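Justification of resources, computational component.

The compute hours requested in this renewal are based largely on the per-chain cost of generating structure records like the one below. Each record pairs the submitted sequence with a full structure-token output. That output is archived, and it is also reused by downstream analysis tasks.
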Amino acid sequence: MQEIAPILVSVVIPWRNYDRSIADVLPVIARTVAPLVSDYEIIVIDNGSTDNEFADYHSLVGEGGLSNLQIYRLIQRVEEDTAAWAGVENSLGDYVLVFNPRLEDLSRLGEGLQEITRGRDVVYFSNTARPKSTVLEGLFAPLFRWLFRRVTGIDLALDATRGRLISKRVVSYLLQQPRPGMRYRALPSISGFSKTTLTYSRMLPRDPERNFPGRARAAINLLISNSMAPLRMASSAALLGAAVNVLYSLYVVAILLVKHDVAAGWTTLSLQISGMFFLISLVLFVLTEYLIQVIRWNVNGPSYFLASEATSAVLTRRQKLNVERAHLSSSLVDPVATDV
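The structure output for this chain reads:
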């Protein structure tokens, strides 16, 4: 039997629209977590349900309901990562577990707790068994994962899983950011934290909330929040457009010098058009570069964050300070003794 860890764990579950399945799964979660830790809390984030649907949650927290359960209602629907961050931000645990019961389970939670209490900052739980996908998802998902890995260096098959156990050190870092919810979404790309991934395979039913348009929108947001590469591509395209217009202007001048039967007004019109597009491309390049800098200033947060600290048990400067104090004390006493 695994030893109980003397920690408080917060379990965050983003959920949309009350149904019987959430009432059935919460007791299972409680029975799974309780034997592994000294204390726990379960936080359900209701992601924009209607008034009637939210009223059904009260039966879970009333007399005879589940213990250690909190339910927060978001005023409007947001992305799942944003809803998850709302739960993390309102959690009290030493460690925070975020997962979606529709797509993940807690079969390796015990190993994850061992990893995190040994000093890991983030433990990912990745379900390698994927529900049956549509034709469009089957075509575009591998292509997007390849593109994402090329742009950010992150393997979405493992690192971007939503099931994760994070330490308070990571939460403290995120809270110092101007947009902590966005940085939480980009957590796999943040270096400096000790991470590991625990995989398992369990076929779970398909989540009806995750249709192709929603997954495509989430994929684009994930790419944009993890990398400046899209903006860099736009900046490079604008600079390339400016260069092409300069070359075209030189071509127009060369034609004017070589040929004598050029149509009247062609040279002037061509130079005018190429000059206008050159200026537009140059303005787009400057604006894109400025936007990149503004995003860095406003999203990156503090210039540094101390994740941990280790200090020598013996500090020579303290010993020297003691010697100086002793020397100073004797110098103050000696003149008095001489006068006497």
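The CA atoms of residues 174 and 180 lie 5 Å apart. The longest strand covers residues 5-15.
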